[in-house]
Design a protein that fits this description.
Distance between the termini: 67 Å
CATH topology of the largest domain: Rossmann fold
Transmembrane segments: 411-434
CATH class of the largest domain: Alpha Beta
Domain ABC transporter: 53-294
Strand order of the largest sheet: 8-9-10-5-11-12
CATH architecture of the largest domain: 3-Layer(aba) Sandwich
Keywords: ATP-binding, Membrane, Nucleotide-binding, Transmembrane, Transmembrane helix, Transport
Structural class: alpha/beta
Number of domains: 2
Largest sheet: 6 strands, mixed
Strand content: 15-25%
Membrane topology: Multi-pass membrane protein
Shape: globular
GO molecular function: ABC-type transporter activity; ATP binding; ATP hydrolysis activity
Radius of gyration: 24 Å
Order of helices and strands: EEHEHEEHEEHEHHHEHEEEHHHHHHH
CATH superfamily of the largest domain: P-loop containing nucleotide triphosphate hydrolases
Length: 435
């Protein structure tokens, strides 16, 4: 098979991606001839309210304080593009991704709409439309890479022979350069396994098995060294080139990645202070009298420029006024007006394709229960003990949010798994006491 090597910045190793695998998605030329998918977020705002005092203090609980986490955020991105969302800690990056994917808790108040191909998504459609890769990799440490992906494929796709699932898994592993670690354990901090970068690629591969068209990544470079983080970002950019919409939040990207993103958005205190192409970013801030110094990382410079310094009150007021000035300039720019126009335009077009849902032909409840039982039994084979409940709960929380199964199915599989251990242990204890 022919392989394509990424063009990575100097100093980083090359990451190979197999483009001719039989189960990989459309090539760029094929995708270009099809109508482009679009994702729009229109005037998204999110706030949460909390009681001021402890639950036993009735008087103080009557008073509530409200925190505005997102304020009037509007974005637009099309398939084949990758958008990078920048912002300091607490700026609302993860909350924005949660709002876009429908994973926000119902304790807060969410306003605004999310449009896919010009159609506003209903609450029950978010799960079937978005693939969401979280910061932390929730994987069973005692399974191999191949076993992890095989179980995911069995939970996501109905029917098919064993050869079909094996072919699909092998194609995805080849796509993400995981074939050389296919039979190695995932591992954890207690015992060895694959590296953090490889573990992150396994999480991405698990999402690709559901054939998503919209992918969200929440700080995928967290905890990785510079070279591995660069490889992951280049890999994600390549996924976007294959007719996908990709949105990624990154805390501190390298300067070499500046031209890799099609669009860059900057959040500060929950407000969108900029969204546009890298060239537009340089021109916009230069027009605001903040040109990027030569030999400086544009990401670092503009992140510092749009962050609020809370070290002291005077500095906080000064930096907040600067952020408000930049945000006002952006709201009056042609880039912001074009974003709103693009969202409105797609709402009235009739030539766009339907909403690109993930693979919806999933197995029945009984089939999923059997797969989960097999997964749990295999997962405890390394230690010969039942799988720890916290680990299974974290895995079931993530995979149930992905729509692979419901939480009660994992709970029932675990009960069926530990039941023989409980019965045998009780019989041995009772027999000793009896005799």
């Amino acid at each position: 098979m022919s392989e394509l090597r990424f063009l990575t910045p100097a100093g980083s190793s090359e990451l190979q991606v197999n483009r001719s695998s039989p189960c990989s998605l459309e090539e760029a030329p094929a995708a270009a001839s099809k109508p482009r998918h679009s994702l729009g977020v229109l005037h998204a705002s999110y706030s949460v309210s909390h009681c001021a005092g402890p639950w036993w203090d009735i008087a103080s609980r009557r008073h509530k304080w409200t925190r505005q986490i997102l304020k009037d955020v509007s974005l637009y991105v099309e398939s084949g593009q990758i958008m990078c969302i920048l912002g300091s800690s607490g700026s609302g990056k993860t909350t924005l991704l949660d709002a876009m994917s429908g994973r926000l808790r119902r304790t807060g108040t969410l306003l605004g709409d999310v449009f896919v191909n010009g159609r506003a998504l209903r609450r029950e459609q978010f799960q079937d439309c978005f693939s969401y890769v979280l910061q932390s990799d929730t994987l069973l440490s005692s399974l191999t890479v191949r076993e992890t992906l095989c179980y995911t494929a069995l939970l996501a796709v109905r029917g098919g022979s064993q050869g079909f699932f094996q072919k699909k898994v092998e194609a995805v592993m080849a796509e993400l350069s995981l074939s050389h670690v296919a039979d190695r354990l995932i591992g954890n901090y207690s015992f060895g396994g694959i590296s953090h970068g490889e573990r992150r690629r396994v999480s991405i591969a698990a999402q690709l098995l559901q054939d998503p068209k919209v992918m969200l990544f929440d700080e995928p470079t967290t905890g990785l060294d510079c070279m591995t983080a660069n490889q992951i970002v280049v890999l994600i950019a390549e996924l976007a080139r294959r007719d996908r919409i990709v949105i990624v939040t990154i805390h501190q990207p390298r300067s070499e990645l500046f031209q890799l993103f099609d669009k860059i958005a900057i959040l500060s205190c929950g407000e969108l202070v900029f969204c546009g192409t890298p060239v537009e970013m340089l021109d916009f801030f230069s027009g605001c009298s903040y040109p990027c110094p030569e030999h400086s990382n544009p990401f670092d410079f503009y992140m510092d420029l749009t962050s609020v310094d809370t070290q002291n009150k005077e500095r906080e007021i000064e930096t907040y006024k600067r952020v408000q000035m930049i945000e006002s300039a952006y709201k009056e720019s042609t880039m912001y007006r074009k974003t709103l126009e693009d969202i409105e335009r797609t709402k009235h077009l009739k030539t766009l394709p339907v909403i690109p849902f993930k693979t919806k032909d999933s197995p029945g409840a009984l089939s999923k229960l059997c797969v989960l039982l097999s997964c749990v039994v295999t997962g405890c084979s390394e230690t010969c003990l039942p799988c720890p409940v916290p680990v299974l709960r974290a895995v079931s929380d993530q995979e149930s949010e992905d729509g692979l199964y419901q939480k009660w199915q994992m709970l029932l599989a675990y009960v069926l798994h530990v039941l023989p251990f409980s019965v045998i242990a009780t019989m041995i204890f009772c027999s000793v006491c009896y005799w």
